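Before a computer can learn anything about folding, someone has to put a protein's shape into writing. The outcome of that step, for a single protein, is printed below:
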Amino acid sequence: MLSVFPTTTTGMMRVARLVVSRPRRRCWCRLSLPLMLILMLSLSLPITRSLPADIVQKFHDPEVERMNHLVVDKNTGRVYVGAVNRLYQLSPDLLLVVKEVTGPKGDSTACSMLDCPREAQKRPVDNVNKALVIDYTTTRLISCGSLFQGMCTVRNLHNISDVVQEVKEAVVANNATASTVAFIAPGPPNPPVSQVMYVGVTFTGNSPYRSEVPAVSSRSLDKDKMLNIAEAAVTTGTRMYVNSLSRERYPINYIYGFSSGGFSYFLTTQMKNTETPIYLSKLVRVCQDDEHYYSYTEIPINCTSDERIYNLVQAAYVGKAGSVLAGDLGITAQDDVLFAVFAESDGPNSDVPRPHSALCVYSLKAIRRKFMSNIQRCFSGEGQRGLEFISPSHKCISTSNRSHAKADDPDAVTEVTAFFLKPEVCWSAASRRVAQHFVVERVTKRQYEEESKRAT
């Protein structure tokens, strides 16, 4: 059920009859280094129930047990809801405008997106909404469900009963429980002008066709290539697969995705590595102008309080800091911040969350600095490059400057590894050089120092 509440004089937000309590204690957020925590939440705190008079309007369909996704048109205020076997278009006041039945339909995991073998036994299967995204460029609603290997439909944003295009492509997870995250952001071939749909999908392994679905991908929004991989070469492209040796035993659960500063990010929960069943949260990043995903990078992220580690991210949102929070974090009011709710795992080898949670707030500037710090450490020869569940890991290679003039000459030509990761710019060319064993370029000492300052 969806409910709308009036604004309170205290400015507190109430959603689904749950009131967010005031902070009780100070915690610390970690990107493997401490950042600042703003608020502590606990499901064990008393829940204040709203009076019926507080509800302005509500929407409920007695035929549907679960609603999965909700998006609001920022231009019109219309509300779109994806549910099990249903898709709804609501007015800004939650009045029903259009209801579309999307399932159950006859399907089998033995069937591909296009056809079924004769021996496949179809049965009525629920269509669980896995992704619901507004494409403002074309005023379309993209809805993806678990049926038919995770296919999507493109609908008229003004009337969702008008199906503009059915995409015969496996895009999202094809069962009720596996995760899918999708969002639209700049991407190849010409960002920021060109937009793509970024998709993160948990491997299901319930069909011979699932090996063709990338774990992370950038998909085209062009009508003629709708939801195909945006850029594809023989061995590379805007996609990343978990390798065949790892995908069954190394599940990645995608929680949230967002765009900031020339990068696209996913928040995930996954094991520490393929051999250690200790679960943690990670922040995955890829450059938006990277046509080959050479820039694909991960860092761990968690939230701690009084020595208690909240290691499993449950939900997240990216927004602007505002003046008060910006002052606390040492950033501007217009800078991006990541709000993320974490839970403790029910044991070190479990991905099941306990009923206590914490809300951490991260500056995206600090996140970019952490990514850059890890990359720079690799240039110093520390750690490994490569993720063993994608491709074999290799020891980082130490690089050093070799001067061809006096050291005190600011315009002396120096050979350095040409990799400067500016916070506001995505350097996929540099990422390609990382993949190609640190190609060295010639720059002056003055250029090197200036770029290093900008990068920090």
